[in-house]
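Researcher: Please translate sequence to structure tokens.
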Amino acid sequence: MVRMGPDVPLLNEYKQEFFWKRFPQTVLGGPRFKLGYCAPPYVYVNQAVLFLTPWLFGGVGTLLCQLQLLQELHAAILSGMLMFAAAAGVQALALYAARRSGAVERLGTPNILVDEEEVEFTNCVSPETLRFIAPGKRFGLNVVLHTILAGVLCGFGTWYVFLGRLTALYDSIGVSLVVFVLSWVTLCIAEYSLIVNTATETATFQAQDTYEITPLTRPLYISIFIAVDMVNRFSSPVPELQLASQILHVLFLFLPLLWALGVLPPLDALLLWGMEQVLVFGLGGSPMSSNIRLLLMFAVSTSVAVCNYLIPSALGVVLFSISTGFLLSLDLSQVGTLCKGPRAAFKNHGLHSGGLPPFLPNSFGWNLGCREILVYLSLLLVAMAEAGLLHHFFGSAQTQNMVTGPQGPVSYLLIILFFLCCTLREIQGVYLLGGMFLNPLYPKGMSNNQAFQQKNRGLYIAAAIRRLLLYFVTPFAMIAFLSMDMSLQSLHRVSISVGFTRAFRVVWQSSEDALLQMVIVILVRLAGGSNLLPGWDNLGTGVQLLLVGLLIDRLSQFLAKLKFTLTVLVTSWTEKKQRRQSAGTLVVLNASLWPLVLAVVTLSALLSAPLLPLFTLPIFLVGFPRPQRSWPGPVGTACPCPDSIFYQQMSGSLASALRTAFTRGSLGSLAPGSHFLGRFQDRMVWIMILERGYGYCTVNVKGLELQETSCHTVEARRVDEVFEAAFEQPERLGFTQGFNLHWGNALTPCTAVAVRVYSDARNVLSGIIDSHENLRKLQDDFMKALIWLLLRYCVQRHRGFLWSGEEASLSGVIKSQSSQFAQTTCNQPSEAIKVESNVSSYRLRQDSSSLTSFGDWSDEDDLFGPQPARRTVALVTAEAQPGHSTLQIGASLPGSVEMDSLFENMALSALQPLQPLGLSIGMPAVDKGRNPEVLRESPHLNLSCPQSEVFNLPPGWRTAPLLPSRLLSLRPLFPEEWFRFTLGRFGQAVQGETSVDMTKALKEDEVLKELHVKVALSCLISVGAESSFTSPSYIYRLYCGDVPWTEGLDWLSSSKELYQLTLQAFRFSFKLLFDQASLGPMESPEELFSTLEEYERDWYIGLVTEKGWHDSVLQEKPFLFSLGHDLTMGTYTGRVLSLQDQLIQVGRLNGEGVRGQWANLSWELLYATNDDEERYSIQAHPFMLRNLTVQAADPPLGYPIYSSPPLHFPCL
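Model: Translation complete:
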């Protein structure tokens, strides 16, 4: 991304024109009076007539009522019937136009290249005109439903704004007339949106309105206003209800403005938000990680509240509330995994098998087993026994005095517990007091993980004490306080019943928040002393706790939104790269209109709605309320790419680390909706809290892109600076050193967690790959590696890892460590193959689809990225011959010389060689008949040692079409001493016990040696390595499997196993060259043998584009190596991945800032359709982390490369 400066247009010219056509349509509910092109007058007249039709029918009913020709009810019914007939007529015309247009389309006359906004009108009732004005409904059910609803809405709307009713409310004819006229504007807007043409709403939650729910949004809000007025009319006079009706009639006039500004949510968002708010603040639950879980939990929790109201006994209510509250606060998702093993349960949590943490089999809480059930059952029985006994003996006490009453000692205990838990939690993080001051007790410097763990040991003890107090002492103290409350005697009041249902639930659901709420209620009572607070005391303890919890939540939201507001406002001027030409004007306006800005912030906090900074400028609006998750889709959607595997690999270890951080409290209060950011090297991890319950927490982990853009780099650099200031300051004395200089940033560092991740090191190989001395050594290392692999292949075949025949493929050696083989090797005996340091076997793929897909070896154009496959001669031939199925889609076969050509992506080698005038121009001719000079051997060899048969090679490997004289000339290149040494070491593994005589006989078997000499030298010639390697480009091509054509290449390619072994041997030899250039030469054969064993056991040596690289990362291979070529710099690079336990720095983000930016992103993309990749609102912002926040949004608006499903972490 190219940063374009602060004065880039907020909307480009096309989008500006589009926006100013769409926005008036939204304001008016659907009429399109601004088209952008010339249209006949009747188009506008028809829309105006349809817009005013409800007013006309309502006016008829109102006039007849005012003339006392009809009663109010009959007049409203007449208006509704007229509107129903008109709506039916509009739908009939829309259906007629759709059928006519469909017939025309079948004739093929319309031009599909014409813009859909351009309509050629022929007359006022032509199908084109009718479809433009009233597009119609997609579903027949909606045609009927919306038509009926239009009539009902018009009838009740007429009743709602009768002049007589308005005059009775306001006692003024003038006010009544103004309200009457403007109210009908609101009704006309809603009716047009419902029945004629639905406008695009600024409050858009779903990317697509699949089921046509949007037309129902505006009528729904009108129905709410009408319902309140109906209750006021038909109920006994209530002054508060009368006042509410008067206020709502005035607010009714401003509904079009609220719809235009997007303050009122659409139906789906309103339903989810409403259920979430009631579940959390009314029933004591938690926001849920999915819509289905939210719906089910809301239904069950509501049923519990109803049952509590119906239970006649106070003791029964206490016991039932405690039991249901405890059970509903547990992680109920584990019930389905009760009969499964721990690994199966953990896999269901969305973590791959390769990332399973080592603690899993014995760690408490990851799976609902017998141990967990026993602990939970014990806690529940103790809580119920405690509550029952205390309520029975002290629940009927007549005094509520905090000193002399039975609740007094428990109240002081709760206050002490609160301060202890808060203090012990506060010292766990790197900052104190909301991120303002550095924690002097936090370890200074983080050189490595072990040192950090040792320095942090004291804090671990404090965390264990806090966990014990918070989870096993505090809930029982709060239950004791509630069980002895006098207000339990008045449970048959709805408010008291709901309040105590919530109180007994939140004790378990969120113990820390419940403790804070209870302490505040206690302090209020202590402050009041013996004086009664009638309005407060009559509410009951349960309702008091409910109000305090709601107040704390709204106050915390207000402070977070206010900090976000100040950040946006101040940085729009202080940051030069964010300072637009209008910045000064906006700052002055915000300063002069600060009461309005404060009112907007307050309203958004009261509604629990995001504060929307328009285009991320200091222009603040109230976004529509929505669930804490912010997005309607399921959790876990992402835009995957090859780099996603690094986040997938670390997911298991990250789960372990987060679980530890959660239990210790080092990340602070874990309220649902909290966001955290983790940073390690080039990786960014975005963590969002979805649910919170007793002993568990549900999170979503997202991985951001690794290929950093300029905007990404700017913000990543600031993130590094923020973390360095917190974790890597050598001295922490003095105010300037102890104060958080980045307090205004959206990111506040919390702690560092140890995660098992890959450390990525990339080196330029200049001086290594182009050194003549190294190139001469490469040939000898290649022969030694090839001999070692051939002998190891024989041992594996003997032990049963390979099967007879050449159909068995070794492509898994190069391409992947497949899960099928991992499953097979688990059943093998541990002593299957050991050569002192435990020689590891190759993991082989059995499916034929993986055989020799040479495309996996292409790595030419991108240093570490995938490349599109190229068509070669093998592919062209394979496609032309149906029976040819040995080659798969991929890059070229070995021997093809590929370059850009006139044939698009087809390599030049794919073209058949030209043969003009009968002359054979091309490759040398090969005589397919008998050649007396080609070495022919019997498939049965006379081996002198019985054990030599184990090391015999397949007959097809001995048939290289090479002259014996050529092999004889290369005989000095065969390392006989290394062969005997390796044969002796492998011979011991085959014999199972040390036998000096047998080992000596093996080494002296000349026939066996000559067999390996021939095969090894034939492979050497076939890959063109008979002379020393001369150029880095040749080495790179050979490493990638793009072997230039040689005389024996066809023979080598025909044997897939041998070809893969040869390629692997060359890659091993290059890795030996790399290591020896860096660490020095090998001093002994033993060292070389152990090094090759290590390569086989602990390394994956290949290309990043191969599937084997992907599988090795997921299986957590300790090391990976790849060779790359940077075409822009003309250099060759080596990439080494090392699996290590590294400290990942984690910080808390301003959750309200994230929600506000996501709300703007939703408005900007879904309504304004501003998808410009260089738009202002996606440019780098070092304080708001704007670019990173946009990336972390759910697709299609954001683009995280990895997103986990909801992960449930135990916190006990």
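Researcher: Any highlights?
Model: The first strand starts at residue 431 and ends at 432.
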